[in-house]
Design brief:
With about 650 residues, the chain is α+β, with helices and mostly antiparallel strands. It has three domains: about 10-200, Heat Shock Protein 90; about 215-330, Ribosomal Protein S5, domain 2 (2-Layer Sandwich); about 400-638, Ribosomal Protein S8, Chain: A, domain 1 (2-Layer Sandwich), CATH 3.30.1370.100. About 30% of the residues lie in helices and about 20% in strands. A hairpin with a 2-residue loop joins strand 4 (about 120-125) and strand 5. It is elongated, with a radius of gyration of 31 Å.
């Protein structure tokens, strides 16, 4: 008895549909690309119920003849490819002849189409790949494709679809990517009866970007242009000052086709080297135009992955085009800057607080009531019977000191050398009631029992140098402080204290971001982030955790949403931890900031006591070099 069976065409089509139709968004992508190939000037996309129940794509393209409409749903039926030579230079969005066959195999479709100049059109009804009805019909020129009940005959695939809101969000993003690649085509998307976006179709990339990505993003973009023979790169890239917390705003197109390319992504980000903050990413819309023979789009059924025949040329073209845009911005700013004036005596200048020019966090760390009064503000005087509290020195006023000029800080020299820091297992908390009250943010640990040591100084405004017995310990102050804040926040059973922003921060969010905020709104509020709707599609940030500087608020929200999107937080507890990671990182002392001696001492105590060993991301916070290691380094011993 034969074991190997030949599958029926219907089963084969259903299997093939899994490669092309992953979710309703895949249907929108294929139908919009068909409309573009048909020469449409206007495309309207409608969807309901997340797209699984209803999708309608209408265009004013060339339309189809009755005989073409009848075979369009057959597998490998296409008007865009005729022989194997055509594969060497594919210039259309589609070419496989599988999309309509795959979609119709797992859904119910109604097609009405009329060629330009014909007196009447054609109506076709298809269910599960079989034509149910076909007849002459009156309809406008172009094609209207209505898809209903996706995966109705494949329940195994249907149950893996996400919520209607999540699927609708994916549909909107997919349609937006398609529309952004064709500025010459006017695209309108209607979701559950409400218009989501509309592109003018005037052929201008700038107006297309403005209409689809919004004013806030468009105003920060710089024009990109570069050529190398028959290759050309155009588009827009963001100013270094407008870096984002993730790569969601990076769009790459090759001959009008949206692609995902690690090569182009790397080329753009390399151009920002040494100009963009670590952890920030540029936003860009890059249109790459080259000969059809220089790119292979026949790599994956989704056609979002391509191969370039000359990858180095493509990389260099995009890199230099983006770098030129950034350099041009610097040159323009230099030209517009006022001429230098002779040096004059410094005079204090009073300016109102603004969001972008917020004071540095170390200003707030060292501010006390006395120094606050010294700035010209009025405060309620303390009762005469109370002794005046000690006034800490402002961090900015402490000159950067080296090992040679910084006096020892901490305990006296030990009578008996201690070789290793103790751990939390053999130490206990030791309250110190005689310690002076110091106003600084590094106070989430009590006075710990630590080995005798001496703080030698601080290197590069990042690493604390500590001498302990025969060892030299280097401590990453940012990583250690980040862990201290994270542990304190995680141990809190109540909601984290929030601070209300003087000026609400507008957030530039995608549809997927808005969904994540709605789903995790209660958790974000509990952790100090109050995000409220502001208009139909916009949101504003009202409060942030009290430990966080207002200038870090927008970047923190972007980073949190990126983590929630990437699947790093599969459950509520993980989501809470990921948000606390971001809060702790933004609230911790930054590299390059001046730090008071009291803050350094608290960080050192936490590390040497064993309470802090790793940052929340798993990096070690300290490294040890022994006297022997140093002697070997300087060849004192062999």
């Amino acid at each position: 008895m034969a074991v190997i069976n030949i599958l029926s065409p219907h089963v084969a089509d259903m299997i093939a549909a899994g490669e092309v139709v992953e979710r309703p968004a895949s249907v929108i992508k294929e139908l919009m690309e068909n409309a573009f190939d048909a020469g449409a000037h206007a495309v309207t996309v409608e969807l309901r119920g997340g797209g699984a129940t209803y999708i309608r794509v209408a265009d004013d393209g060339c339309g189809m003849a009755p005989e073409d409409a009848g075979i369009a749903f057959m597998r490998h039926a296409t008007s865009k490819l005729h022989d194997e030579q055509g594969l060497e230079a594919i210039g259309t969005m589609g070419f496989r002849g599988e999309a309509l066959a795959a979609i119709s195999a797992v859904s119910e479709i109604e097609l009405t189409t009329r060629r330009q100049g014909d007196g009447s059109g054609t109506y076709v009804s298809v269910s599960a790949g079989d034509i149910q009805d076909m007849h002459e019909a009156g309809c406008p020129e172009g094609t209207i494709m209505t898809v209903r009940s996706i995966f109705f005959n494949t329940p195994a695939r249907l149950k893996f679809l996400k919520s209607d809101r999540a699927e609708a969000s994916a549909c909107v993003q997919t349609a937006l990517r398609c529309a952004l690649g064709r500025p010459e085509v006017s695209v309108r998307l209607v979701r559950d009866g409400k218009e989501e976006f509309f592109s003018p179709g005037d052929g201008k990339a700038a107006s297309c970007v403005y209409a689809l990505l919004g004013r806030e993003m468009a105003k920060d973009l710089l024009p990109v242009s570069g050529e190398d023979g028959d290759m050309r790169a155009t588009g827009f890239t963001s100013s270094p000052a407008a870096g984002r917390g993730n790569r969601a705003a990076q769009f790459f197109y090759c001959n009008g086709r949206y692609i995902r390319s690690a090569l182009l992504q790397s080329a753009v980000e390399q151009a920002y080297k040494n100009t963009l903050l670590v952890g920030r990413f540029p936003a860009c819309v890059i249109y790459l135009t080259l000969s059809n023979a220089a790119v292979d789009v026949n790599v994956h059924p989704a056609k979002t992955e391509v191969k370039f025949s000359q990858e180095k040329r493509v990389f260099d073209l995009v890199y230099h085009a983006v770098l030129s845009a950034l350099t041009q911005e610097d040159r323009i700013e230099a030209e517009e800057a006022p001429a230098a004036k002779p040096a004059a005596a410094p005079t204090p200048v009073t300016t109102g607080p603004t969001y972008k020019a917020a004071p540095r966090p170390d200003f707030y760390r060292s501010m006390s009531s006395e120094s606050f009064r010294a700035q010209g503000y009025s405060v309620k005087p303390a009762p005469a019977s109370q002794p005046a509290a000690s006034v800490p020195v402002r961090a900015a006023e402490i000159p950067y000191q080296t090992r040679m000029d910084m006096p020892p800080i901490g305990h006296a020299a030990p009578a008996v050398p201690v070789t290793r820091p103790q751990t939390t297992e053999n130490t206990a908390f030791r309250p110190d009631s005689t310690a002076p009250v110091v106003e600084n943010p590094v106070q989430n640990v009590e006075k710990l029992a630590v080995p005798d040591h001496k703080i030698v100084g601080e290197a590069l405004k990042l690493y604390i140098l500590v001498e302990m017995g025969e060892e030299l310990i280097l401590i990453d102050k940012h990583a250690a402080h980040e862990r201290m804040i994270f542990d304190r926040l995680k141990q809190q059973e109540r909601s984290i204290m929030a601070q209300e922003l003087l000026t609400s921060v507008p957030l530039r969010l995608t549809e997927e971001d808005r969904e994540l905020i709605d789903i995790n709104g209660a958790l974000l509020s509990e952790l100090g982030f109050e995000i409220e709707p502001f208009g139909e599609h916009d949101y504003v940030l009202r409060t942030v955790p009290s430990d966080m500087a207002p200038s870090d608020a927008e970047a923190a929200v972007e980073e949190i949403l990126d983590k929630l999107k990437s699947g790093k937080a599969p459950d509520p507890q993980s989501a809470r931890d990921e948000i606390l990671h971001t809060v702790a990182c933004k609230a911790a002392i930054k590299a390059g900031y001046d730090t008071t001696r009291e803050e350094l001492q608290r960080i050192v105590d936490a590390v040497l006591s064993g309470a802090v060993k790793y940052c929340p991301h798993g990096r070690p916070v300290s490294a040890v070099m022994t006297r022997r290691d140093l002697d070997k380094l300087f060849k004192r011993i062999v």
